[in-house]
Amino acid sequence: MQSAVKEAVSADDQALPAPALLEVDGVTLRYVTPTSVVTATWRVSFSCAAGERLVLLGPSGCGKSSLLKAIGGFLQPTEGELRLDGREIRRPGLDRMIVFQEFDQLLPWKTVAGNIAFPLEEARHWRKAEIAARTSQAIAKVGLAGFADAYPHQLSGGMKQRVAIARALASEPTILLMDEPFAALDALTRRKMQEELLRLCEEARITLLFITHSIEEAILIGHRIVLLSPHPGRVKAVMGTQAARATPEAARLLQDQITHLLFTEKFDQGAGI
Amino acid sequence: MQQAVNAPLDPTTLLDVPADDLVVERPLPAWKRLWNIAALRRGLVLVLLAGLWQATALYADNALMFPTFTDTAAAFVTGLRSGGLLSMTLTSLQTLLIGYAIGVALAAVLAGLAASSRFGDDVLTTLTAMFNPLPAIALLPLALLWFGLGLPSILFVLVHSVLWPLALNTASGFAAVSETLRMVGGNYGLTGWRYIVKIAIPAAFPAILTGLKIGWAFAWRTLIAAELVFGVASRSGGLGWFIFENKNELETASVFAGLATVVLIGLFVDIIIFRTIERHTVRKWGMQR
Predict the structure, then answer these.
(1) Segment A180-198 mean pLDDT
(2) With pLDDT > 70 as the criterion, what percentage of chain A qualifies?
(3) Cβ separation A102–B180 shorter than 8 A
(4) So what's the pLDDT on residue B234?
(5) Residue B91 contacts by C-beta under 8 Å, 6 or more apart in sequence?
(6) Is the Cβ pair B180, A109 closer than 8 Å?
């Protein structure tokens, strides 16, 4: 089983000649609760190339959020290494902006513009005029012009997530990390947000690491999908979505295949990954 | 999915109900809009209370025990004019502000320590559990022993009355900052005191404001009580002393005027100062309705 996974990974790496921007190399994550030590992921390896959209897909308990925290720099691996652009990830940083699922990720005491400008101001790297320019540009990009002076509590769920995305993109991070950003939205809004995210990614060639538990969303968003199995989180498969995004029939096939992989413990080597 | 597209659709009925002559939004009648103004409703309560007071006092007809509202108002005006009441009030407010400021500063330090380490949190939790239930005024004899008659003793009990409720509220506000907001702060490189100033304090502001209000009320009543005890010995003044002195001289209307001043200042701080802060912060931010 391990070798099959490795083959799949290397085969995919060959298909993408671009050098890996984000490297997750044999990462084991453990965290301590008051009563025990929990292993969240076990020797997880994958990589993400510049401009690629990589989706981590798996059921709850597969450690996908822990992986995102580790890549964000909030959690140190007990084994293995995380590298961004060749440098080891040691602490949180603006080069890895995170968009969370929760609406309360916005600062309620700041307006839309204030929220988007906040990380830019705290970075102490940009001039005031440039911060203002980047902020209004980001607001326009996510279609919130006219809401710059609104407070988060005056916005709908979808608009709040747009602000979070704009805030993350304004500082032009090396990689954008998204932790189930659309999971708390209604189905219609989610559909719209997915399309807008894809449009933004295409426009700015954003490198994206996207976490979801929705198979449809994974196929829609990702160039590649890293499928994780739970307890502890391990890489079960790495699959490309190029064919699946071309025709609905292929999408359905891939969806069935992922469902099959997720809901049967037996790893079918003849599945043709 | 493919099959569904090829299959014939069920018939759809399109409806277009005209709504041209419907007024979507119409204003409420004037009296309803007036009744929606909280200040007016509460002002009416005050007027009714004053009327009730006047009627009861006239009926009782005993100026020594229960002066009328108009007598009290007259005593109030005389007190202000002759300067006694005004200067006593200013003395009280000055003492209060000094004590309040020291209490707030100490509470900020304690809550900050509690937020930054688990042991600091244990220290604060234990201290508040011990001292919060202890009435500040009960410490006055000890304060007199330590600091003698004068401002330091009053400040000691004032700080005690502000510090614990404020520190407790602030620390629990800090503890309630959501994991997501903490990670957002971390993502932007905010750690230590920058995290506290930029994330924790605004996020915990509803709790901090509650602590400030409770601390203010505790301090105000502690101060008046301390002055009642204190003024007898040192004639240091203050509203409490004004009340005590007038009771001794059986100027009951002036006693009432002094009490009314205590109440009016309490109302002023609550309605004007704290409500204004609330309106410009937690209400504007949608953190409190």
Answers:
(1) 86
(2) 90
(3) yes
(4) 53
(5) B236, B237, B238, B239
(6) no
